Amino acid sequence: MGEQIFGCWVWILVAATHVANPLLQGWVMYVSLTSFLISLMFLLSYLIGFYKRYESWRVLDSLYHGTTSILYMSAAVLQAHATIVSETNDLNNYFINTAASFFAFVTTLVYILHAFSIYYH
Q: What residue ranges are annotated as transmembrane (predicted)?
């Protein structure tokens, strides 16, 4: 649940800035939005009770969160680069990009922790 909240913040903050590097921040938007939607589907599946029916639920959940953490790490690094580049353009965009970078790294950490906690639980 935490990864969805932080990922939503990344998505909102990147959307609120003037996009200086469309390719870099496009990847950040794609990863954050796609991860948010798939994580929401996992949450709904969990609430419905699919995890009780299938033995491989933990493996699937751990693989998804592990893969997403790798994708989010790449997005966080690209967002940090976009933040460094935006420093010279506009101070307001710089602060928003800084917050987006922070939340991207926090989201990456939460996905990693979720993947390991499911796997070792």
A: 30-51, 63-82, 94-120
pTM: 0.85
Pick from 80, 81, 71: nearest CA to 111: 71
Residues in the chain: 121
- Helix locations, 49-89, DSSP H: 50-53, 57-86
Collapsed DSSP state (helix, strand, coil) of residue 105: helix
DSSP designation for 54 = -
CB 84 within 8 A of CB 19: no
pLDDT digits (tens, 9 = 90+) for 75-109: 999 999 988 887 776 788 889 989 999 999 999 99
Residue 32 in tokens: 């954050």
